[in-house]
TrEMBL record:
Entry protein name: ABC transporter ATP-binding protein
Domain of life: Bacteria
Chain ranges of the ABC transporter domain: 5-251
SUPFAM superfamilies from the UniProt entry: P-loop containing nucleoside triphosphate hydrolases
Protein's organism: Teichococcus aestuarii
GO annotation terms (biological process): transmembrane transport
Length: 260
């Protein structure tokens, strides 16, 4: 079956040391990754290992130096480097910092309505649609006319999830999307994302450096190793672990510190 999203033979490097420099920092080398329709796939790795870069390439925000990004079997970008509007709507993202991801000038309504404006719905229908999306993420629609930045961090992240879901996407990149939230809100938002996936059939790429968040949430798991994602069958299982995974496991604090 054709995967929803496939990346093959991806190479990507960033220029280092100013505009005229020829030095390039290789970030991805021969990277490949596959996400099926409705799947939740985790992408784990330490900071600086190239996870967000892979996410940006998946959204079509930048082209890879080499390799293919295919969405439903078709190249994500056309020959002129443009992402087709349908694919742009079908792949959405939620990032770590909801305050950086929204304008301080916009109301909660305007944040969620933004991806729906092209549909030219009459205002009352648009407000009803936004209210429905807010309810779906557990927000009271009465908050609609409040400035988005007057919401709490957890509420604003829910609003960003509502905005991502507004165009009925097939795939959402969750790039450290719960990492800035307190533990209780993290658990609530993960449960919400899990429910929304069951209800809508949306797929997730769940990017994180926090192994704890993956358990019970992601069905398959990739780990960044030597500039490419490598699938790990069971990141919590016994047996020898790749060093990068052992380091992530060691970083998990015990629920109750052992004496001595
Ligand atoms: N636009 C850019 N220009 C130059 N270097 C970049 C750029 N974006 C990322 N990098 C570098 O590429 C490497 C990979 O960065 P990336 O953000 O993809 O890693 P990451 O695994 O997502 O890290 P984190 O978990 O800290 O977000 C890092 O060394 C980073 O400094």
């Amino acid at each position: 079956m054709t995967p929803l999203l496939e990346m093959r033979g991806i190479h990507h490097a960033y220029r280092q040391g100013g505009l005229l420099s020829r030095r390039r920092l290789p970030v991805l080398e021969d990277a490949a990754l596959r996400i099926g329709a409705g799947e939740c796939v985790a992408l784990l790795g330490p900071t600086g290992s190239g996870k967000s870069t892979l996410g940006r390439l998946m959204l079509g925000l930048e082209p890879p130096d080499a390799g293919a990004v295919l969405f439903e079997g078709q190249p994500l970008r056309d020959a002129r480097g443009r992402v087709a509007p349908a694919a742009r709507r079908a792949i959405q993202a939620v990032f770590q910092d909801p305050f950086a991801a929204t304008s301080p000038r916009l109301s909660a309504f305007a944040v969620v309505a933004e991806p729906l404006l092209a549909g030219r719905l009459p205002r009352p229908a648009l407000r009803e649609r936004v209210a429905g999306l807010m309810r779906a993420v557990g927000l009271d629609p009465a908050l609609m006319d409040r400035l988005a930045h007057r919401l709490s961090g957890g509420q604003l992240q829910r609003l960003c999830i509502a905005r991502a879901l507004a165009p009925a996407p097939r795939l959402v990149l969750l790039d450290e999307a719960v990492n800035s939230l307190d533990l209780e809100t993290q658990a609530q938002v993960l449960a919400l994302l899990h429910r929304l996936r069951r209800e809508t059939g949306v797929a997730y790429l769940f990017v994180t450096h926090d192994l704890r968040l993956v358990r019970g949430f992601a069905g398959r798991c990739y780990l960044m190793q030597e500039r490419r994602p490598v699938e790990v069958p069971d990141p919590f299982g016994p047996g020898p672990l790749p060093p990068a995974l052992a380091a992530l496991r060691a970083a998990i604090l015990p629920a109750r510190p052992r004496p001595g």
